[in-house]
Amino acid sequence: MADYYDLLGVSRDADSDTLKSAYRRLARQYHPDINKDPGAEDRFKEIGRAYEVLGDPQTRARYDQFGEAGLGGAGMPDMGDMGGFADLFETFFSGFGGQGSGSGRAQRKGPQQGDDLRYDLTIEFKQAVFGQEREIKIPHLEVCDTCGGGGAKPGSGPTTCSTCGGAGQVRRATRTPFGSFTQVAECPACGGTGQVIANPCNSCGGQGVKQVRKKLRINIPAGVDTGTRLRVSGEGNAGLRGGPSGDLYVFLKVKSHSKLKRDGLTIHTEVNVSYLQAILGDTIEVDTVDGPATLEIPIGTQPNTVLTLENKGIPKLGNPVARGNQCIVVNVSLPKRFSEEERMLLEKLATHHSARGVQNHHHKSGLFSRLFGQNE
Q1: What is the domain-level CATH number for residue 282?
Q2: Which of 195, 169, 163, 167 is nearest to 182 (CA)?
Q3: Quick one: the chain helix, strand, coil %, rounded to 5?
């Protein structure tokens, strides 16, 4: 027999999903109910044997190491069909082989819900603050409009699988060190549905669903932040065999702002004022998410003082009426050069402070030293 990997047309490092997909595709192609070419049935059996071995991690490991010789040699029981101890315990306790409460025939696969999808969306800082309606395009699976999700060409339909007789499962004898047992497994030909499609739909290839790109308008609420997840119900992949669609989850990432920094519901920023504005007080204009706003600089404001603009922060998610504050750090700038007139005025001010008994060490240290030292 040919190499099992070559029979399935996969690489030796193929994962379980790739193996299963390859097997199902080939099983449909060579199924005796569909393919009447000479040798198709033999090919179908070879493909089934290849997947039976490679689909089980234990038998696959033995096959990779020893080839077919590792699947059942002299002096040891044939473990190739054992299916692992997990299957063995299912044999004892799940009613397989006609024992227990089950009948040995599991239900056919019914409707299956579609997969959920993820979409990553980057938005601007202000869009996160106030919210926005955005249009996005997503690729997802929708029910085929040609066959209505049945997978067969219009005018035809699925037929009963000849491999399992419509049961959706097949029995196999398992030889173990404890004796022989009968197991029930999903039918490899029909995937457990009990039916095969002899005339697949040309639009969807018999899948019943096809991939399309769809435009969606989503509402981004006010107050979202990086990591916020929005759920759009029913916009994931379409379900199979009439099952419901999955959901779409939009994960948000918010761009940073050049001047405004967010911390929860609070916005932080900085402003620069002159030493005269800090000493005498002033009214200045600052940036906020709502646009320019007026900020009062109190008389005698010290460097690194934090001033607050109430209700200029981030709206609370789910309650946009409640907003945080904007906190503003005041940086006081000292000039490096003075005109002669400025110097005289400041000297006069220093003398006035000295006359009032204000301890200032007259230019030796502190503010006056920084003000006058560079002009001396």
Answers
A1: 2.60.260.20
A2: 169
A3: 25, 30, 45
What local confidence, expressed as pLDDT, does residue 346 receive? Answer: 83
CA-atom Rg of the chain in angstroms:
38
Output the CA angle 80-84-85, nearest 5 degrees. 135
Report whether pLDDT(84) > 50: no
Using CA atoms, how far apart are residues 111 and 131, in angstroms rounded to an integer? 38
Report d(CA 231, CA 247) in Å as an integer.
7
pLDDT digit string, tens, across residues 104-162: 334 456 788 899 999 999 999 999 999 999 999 999 999 999 998 888 888 888 888 88
Q: What are the angstrom distances between the C-alpha of 303 and each of 282, 299, 316, 334, 364? A: 15, 12, 31, 11, 21
Same domain membership, residue 209 and residue 141: yes
Q: Check whether 350 has a pLDDT greater than 60.
A: yes
Co-location of 59 and 16 in the same domain? yes
Is residue 65 domain-shared with residue 26, that is, in the same domain?
yes
Backbone angles phi, psi at 82, to 5 degrees: -70, -35
Rounded to whole angstroms, the Cα distance separating 285 from 269 reads 13
